Structures are given as structure tokens and as C-alpha cells.
């Protein structure tokens, strides 16, 4: 088992990429601290993973965009969980596809609060303890939206460009430590992401993945597992991963596309 008795903190663990990563890590013997807002899902995942893989799972109902919630949860953890071997900053979302000048202010705030500020809050709580421990991997889930900009992507793209900038900044600042900073930048992954983006409109969400085989959350979990299990002298800085029929955010080959 590649992660036996290690500890990983994963944000956004109740769905999609975070949930798949929790399962991939648990299968490798990793104990987990899982963070998200939907506590019933966290509880269900905890009991499934503990039973199936005999690992310890600690859960936190935390909105990462609220620093006081992040801090209270962090302070409630036993010391060994405050210094994980792996931190996966995955929680994130997009709202809408409106033009920038038509974007509702609450959607703008939410995307920046979760995708950027939430990532910084969680990083700033856990990473100092990882530095003290003298080892660890930080994985930030960015996006190809952090490399390109597409129509309607405006604010979401800005937040993911920020994730890239923050990952690069942290890598520079931790260069004299054994810690490594890894950014994973996926293209289309079929998760709850599009249902959230279209505020529950499942038909619109399904259209995003229509006519192509998208990536699945397990593909990203597999990649994250690969990056964190390299030898300690190897740091995979950034990985862009897309479905085979996607070349850019907008150039996508779809079968039977009328
Ligand atoms: P998802 O299925 O919607 O999962 C998102 C996760 O984030 C959920 O567990 C959600 O849990 C959590 N979350 C959202 N807001 C949160 C908050 N305020 N506090 C704590 N947790 C929060 O979407 P996904 O595709 O797996 O997204 C994971 C990451 O991948 C995101 O950063 C996203 O930007 C990135 N990404 C996705 C794609 C894609 O095509 N799907 C492509 C590139 C990058 P709760 O609702 O329970 O809080």
C-alpha cells in the first residue's frame, strides 16, 4: 500500500474529484481528514471508507470560504492531523456563464471566496505545520480555465488563474523545504460541477459532456495519487489533463453533434 498510515486532508470531499481522491487514498491505507459542507455525505463516506479500507477518517463540516469555520475546525484537530503528509485543496465551483458585466455580485463573491480565499485559508492553517514536520505534498486542483479564458468563463477563469499563481508562489516560497507543490489542471471532468454551475439544471449540465467521453473523477484521483507517490526528490509542478477529444477549453470533438 502506497500511503499506509499517512494522513491526507482533502477539501471538497463530498463529490466528484475530492470524493474519488478520498477513495483512492483510502485504498492505499491513508488516513483522511475530509472537509465539505454537506455533513450527511461526509458521514456516509466516513463509514464506507472506514469499513472497506480499515483507515481512520476524520470529517469536518466546514465552509472553506469562512475563515472562522476553517480555524475552529483546525483547532479542534489532534496535533498529528494538523500536520498531514498530503493536503489536497480541491473544493471549488463555478456559477453561471453570463458575461462579466452581467454577472450577479453574489456569484462573483462566492467563486472568489471558495476557489481563491478558501484555498489560501486552508493552506495557511495546515502548511506551517507541514513545514515544521519537514515533509509533505500540497496538491491544488486548478483547471485549464487557469490557462485559457473562454466565453462566459470570466470570473471562474480568473479564480483558476489565481490558483495557478498561488501554487507557483507557494512553490517558490517552499523551495528550501522538502515540501512539494503540485497543481493539477483538468479539462472536462464529469462531476457535479456543471449541475452546480447551472444551479441545478441537469439538462444544461448534461450537455456539457454530450457527444464525448469526458474525464471521470477517478482519472484525476489516479493522477493525484501518482504525483504524491513519487520519490521525495521529484516534484511534479503542474499537470494539464484533458479528455482525448478535447484540445482546448472550446475545441472539443463531439460525436453526432447536430
Ligand atoms: P463537484 O462534484 O461539484 O465537487 C465540488 C466539491 O467542492 C464538493 O465536495 C463540494 O462539497 C465542495 N465545496 C464547494 N464549495 C465548498 C465550500 N464553500 N466549502 C467546502 N467545500 C466546498 O465538482 P468537481 O468537478 O469535483 O470539482 C472539484 C475541483 O475541480 C474544483 O476546484 C473545480 O474547480 C475543479 N475542476 C473541475 C473540472 C470539471 O470539469 N469538473 C475541471 C477543472 C477543474 P459541499 O457542497 O458538500 O460543500
Automatic annotation (TrEMBL):
InterPro entries, per this entry? NAD(P)-bd_dom_sf, Sc_DH/Rdtase_CS, SDR_fam
The record's section on Gene3D superfamilies has: NAD(P)-binding Rossmann-like Domain
Q: Name one GO molecular function term.
A: serine 3-dehydrogenase activity
Q: Which UniProt keywords are listed?
A: Oxidoreductase
Q: Name one Pfam family in it.
A: adh_short
- What is the superkingdom listed in this entry's lineage? Bacteria
Entry EC number(s): 1.1.1.276
> What sort of enzyme, by top EC class, is this?
oxidoreductase
Q: Which family does it belong to?
A: Belongs to the short-chain dehydrogenases/reductases (SDR) family.
Q: What is this protein called?
A: Serine 3-dehydrogenase (NADP+)
Q: Which organism is it from?
A: Thermotomaculum hydrothermale
As recorded in Swiss-Prot or TrEMBL, the protein's gene is named: sdh
